[in-house]
Amino acid sequence: MTQKQANNPLHGITLEQIIIKLEKEMGWAEMGEQVKINCFTKDPSIKSSLKFLRKTPWARTQVEQLFINLNLTETPNNSFSWSKNKHK
Questions:
Q1: With contact defined as beta carbons under 8 Å apart, do 21 and 67 qualify?
Q2: What total of structural domains would you count in the chain?
């Protein structure tokens, strides 16, 4: 069962990675404009966003779609590093 999921662009990408990449590319203010949720506009943090998005399927779907639309699913040379991206 190691078949690659070609139809799933988010395969292997965690919700935390999605939020970190979006915040790095757009910033919290722009994320809040694109997806109207308070965890992006009122005292935003990765931790509060994860908590809300894990409990709210419609919001998670919108954030994942934003990530896909911005074509952030591929990281050049797999350069994503957890050591550079710590929780706030």
A1: yes
A2: 1
